[in-house]
Amino acid sequence: MRIISWNVNGIRAVAKKDFFESINKMEPDILCLQETKAQDHEVEETLSAMEHYTMHYNSADKKGYSGTALISKIDPIAVTKDMQVSEHDSEGRIQCAEYNDFYLVNVYVPNSGQQLDRLDYRKQWDTDFLKYLKNLEKTKPVIACGDFNVAHRAIDLKNDKSNYNKTAGYTQIEIDGMDNFIEAGFVDSFRHFHPDTIAYTYWSYRFKSRERNTGWRIDYFLVSKSLVDRIKSVDILSDYFGSDHCPISLEIEF
């Protein structure tokens, strides 16, 4: 089974590029998209060309903002939205698909803001999201994928010293949040298989960041420990364009 996760930074914008061609090349069994920036009916219309997939959407109340979509060749047993915590559930950031052997959580974690004005909120989000994942894990193992909006270690961003505690995505509060996921038993699957590889999943549109590979690794597959032995590969697919993020892939056998 191949799962692809991709922050598309606007589904309608990326669909005008090589998006469908890219998906055909990647051949996902399940595709998790973040930051669709569209309402459910707009996502559905944009993706209507994708046959042989079932589609599920979770759009934000605010138009043109946030949003997730989960597209699957394998029919999930059930799909639920959000974490049932009212302060977090208006931005379309979570989808959970139940399959026979696992839960798949598609997530777009909130950014702490240019002025770090949402950092306190982000800290609470991380706490509540971890509780949500651990509650799911009581029933089945969990694969959580998406844009976690944090570079966990210095190896995960180009300019670690100049960004530390100054830039959203690399503050100690956010690093601590990711530490808590790892300490609770979730495995950063890319880093597990590629402990010393420098690879990024996000590049700012400014300063020719992608050309210079001045990037950040902020997109993850976090998996329950019990699933690690089933993983065949985890890759960062930086040859695919269309967004300021690239897709990431996980191949797993059941």
From TrEMBL:
Residues 4-245 form the Endonuclease/exonuclease/phosphatase domain. One of its GO terms (biological process) is base-excision repair. Keywords: Hydrolase, Magnesium, Manganese, Metal-binding. Probably binds two magnesium or manganese ions per subunit. Its cofactor is Mn(2+); Mg(2+). The keyword Hydrolase applies. Mg(2+) binds at N7, E35, D147, N149, D244, H245. Pfam families: Exo_endo_phos. The active site is at Y108, D147 (proton donor/acceptor), H245 (proton acceptor). InterPro entries: AP_endonuc_1 (IPR004808), AP_endonuclease_F1_BS (IPR020847), AP_endonuclease_F1_CS (IPR020848), Endo/exonu/phosph_ase_sf (IPR036691), Endo/exonuclease/phosphatase (IPR005135). The record marks N149 as: Transition state stabilizer. NCBIfam families: exoDNase_III, xth. This is Exodeoxyribonuclease-3.
